[in-house]
Prior knowledge:
Largest sheet: none
Shape: flat
Helix content: 40-55%
Oligomer: single chain
Distance between the termini: 83 Å
Amino acid sequence: xxxxxxxxxxxxxxxxxxxxxxxxxxxxxxxxxxxxxxxxxxxxxxxxxxxxxxxxxxxxxxxx
Length: 64
C-alpha cells in the first residue's frame, strides 16, 4: 500500500467569483438596508449619551 494514495484527499480550490451584477430591485434593497443601518447607529449614539433609563436606581421596599 503506497503512502501517497492513503487517507483523504484535499478538495480542489473553488474558482474566484467575479463581480456581482445587481438589478434595480437589488440596488433598492441594498440602499434601504444601508439607510436602516445608519438610522440604527444614530439611535445607538443618542441612547449612549442619555445614560440610564429613569435614573431612579434600585427600588427599596418599605419592609424592614
